[in-house]
Amino acid sequence: MDETATVAESYTEMTELLLPNDTNNLGRALGGAVLHWMDICGAIAGMRFSNRQVVTASMDHVDFISPIEMGEVAVIEGYVFNVGNTSVDVKVHVSAENPRTDERRRTTTSYFTFVALDDEGTPASVPELTTPTDAEETLRDDAIEGRREQLRSVAERYDL
Description:
globular; two-stranded parallel sheet; Thiol Ester Dehydrase, Chain A; alpha+beta
C-alpha cells in the first residue's frame, strides 16, 4: 500500500436521474435515497484513497436545503479531506441539476467517517493525506472549516 494519497486520488462524482421509485408523493427525492447515494459516493472515495474496503463509521448532521425534483439529475461529489490511523473523513456534496439548462443548485452537504478494513475485516492503516496542489489544499481546508461550521451550527440550534 502507498504511504501517501491525495485529495484528487479520492475524488468521486456520481449522477442519478431522479425517477419515480426514489420520489415522495410530491415528486421530490426521498431523503433516504439521497442519504443512500451520499453513503455510496463517500465509500467509493474512501476506497479509492485507501485501496481498501471501508465501512461507514459516522455521518454528520444533514439538512436538506433544496429539493431534487423528478427528472432532475442528482450530482453527488465526494473526496477525502482528513485521515486518522484507520479512518478517512469524506466531504459529500449533493447538487440538483436541470438537464435542459445545466443549472445546478446545492441541496445538501455532509461529512462522513469511514474505517478501512484489511482482508480479515479488522481496521487497517490508511495512507497519509497529501495536498500537492493549491487547489487540493483549498478543498481540504474548505472541508475542515465547513465541518467545523456545520457542527457549531448544530450545537447552537440544539443548545448543546
